[in-house]
Design a protein that fits this description.
two-stranded antiparallel sheet, 34% strand, alpha+beta, seven-stranded antiparallel sheet, 9 strands, 152 residues
Length: 152
């Protein structure tokens, strides 16, 4: 069996290394990032739908509830396209009766929604080291009191 000259081995190694580095830097989109999401789930709040492609990080879930209000923070991760995720939340929050107040899009996107007795802010962050997006949902709901609508 004949050995390859060191120069040829070095050239092939360089190409393989450059290919791996390009993939690690995020030059190609991740596989399996479909524009359409599967049906989602409701977690702490029964009117904030989260797509099934996002997985909750239970270590970053916080809930404070008493007779007057309910406040929660939930954190999710998933391999999804940011613009598709933003559209998912805009469309589904409207279906659940939320009014869109503000949308800021960038590497760190922020969506703000309100209802009669509720407020919700969704922050979506592109993390540089992975294809996963971090999605943080902050929601507050007022409960009870003489001025509250009993239908909500």
């Amino acid at each position: 069996m004949r050995k390859l000259p060191p120069l040829i081995v070095g050239i092939f190694s360089t190409f393989i290394l450059l290919g791996c580095m390009a993939k690690a830097k995020g030059t190609e989109p991740p596989e399996g990032t479909a524009a359409n999401f599967d049906q989602g789930y409701y977690y702490t709040f029964n009117d904030i739908l989260v797509p099934a492609e996002l997985e909750m990080d239970d270590t970053e879930r916080y809930l404070l509830e008493d007779t007057k209000f309910k406040a929660g923070i939930e954190v999710f991760y998933g391999r999804v396209v940011m613009s598709d995720l933003i559209n998912f939340f805009i469309n589904n929050m409207a279906k659940d009766g939320w009014e869109r107040k503000d949308v800021f899009m960038g590497q760190r996107s922020l969506l703000k929604f309100e209802k009669f007795n509720k407020s919700c802010t969704i922050q979506i962050i592109e993390e540089d080291y992975s294809y996963k997006l971090r999605t943080e949902i902050f929601a507050v709901e007022s409960k009870g009191g003489p001025d509250m609508d009993p239908q909500q």
